Amino acid sequence: TDTLLAATTITSLEETFRRHHAAARELLPHAKAEEFVEYVNDAAQRIAQLLEALSVEAIRKPTQDSIVSFGETLSSALLAEVLNERGIAARQVDPRRCIITNEEYTCAAPLMAETFSHCQQELRPLLETGVVPVLGGFVGATLTGATTTLGRGGSDYTAAIIGAALSASEIQIW
After folding, report:
1. First CA to last CA across the chain, in angstroms?
2. pTM of the entire structure?
C-alpha cells in the first residue's frame, strides 16, 4: 500500500510486481503461478492507466483510492490461491462488494447498515458451504460502486466490521 501511495509512474512499481511474481512462483504450482503472474500483469496495466489520470486534480483522491486498492486485491488473490493449493477451500471476495462507504475518498466511513447487509449476502453463503472467504481490508466502495479506502488502520477496522456483521464470536488480527 505504501509503495502504491508513493508511486508516480508504473516503472516505480516494477520491484513490487516482481515480488508478487516471485511469491506466486514460490507458493503455487507452475500453472497456477503463471495465472497469477498474468493477473498481476493485468493489474499493472490498469494501475498505469490510473497513474496517468492522477494529474487531473478533480479526480485525484478517487484515483488514488483505486490505485492503492490493488495492494489488498493482489494479496488476497494470492492468499486464496495458496489456501486452495493447501487443501483449504477458499475464495477471494472483492471487499468492495462488502464494505459500503460514504464518498470521503482516502478516509471513507463505512455505512454500517448497508455494509452489514452486503457482508451477509456475500460472505454467509460461502461460510455455510465451508468456503473460507478471503478479502483484503482497507478497501470499500460507495453506493454507486466507486472504490474508496478507509485510511490508515483500515484493514483492522475492516476485520472488526466484518466480524460484527457476521456475529463472529472472535476476530484475530495478525
Report:
1. 17
2. 0.85
Q: What does the DSSP 8-state code read for residue 131?
A: P
| Residue given cell 462488494 in the structure block | 97
Residue 79 pLDDT exceeds 80: yes
Q: DSSP for 64-94?
A: HHHHHHHHHHHHHHHHHHHHHHTT--EEE--
Question: Is residue 152 within a helix (H) or strand (E), and if so which, with residue range?
Answer: none
Contact 46, 4 (CB under 8 A): no
For 113, phi and psi rounded to 5 degrees?
Answer: -60, -45
Reported as a single tens digit per residue, the pLDDT across 152-164 is 888 999 999 999 9
CA proximity to 76, closest of 113, 39, 119: 39
Give the three cell numbers for residue 8: 508516480
Residue 99 cell numbers, joined: 464494505
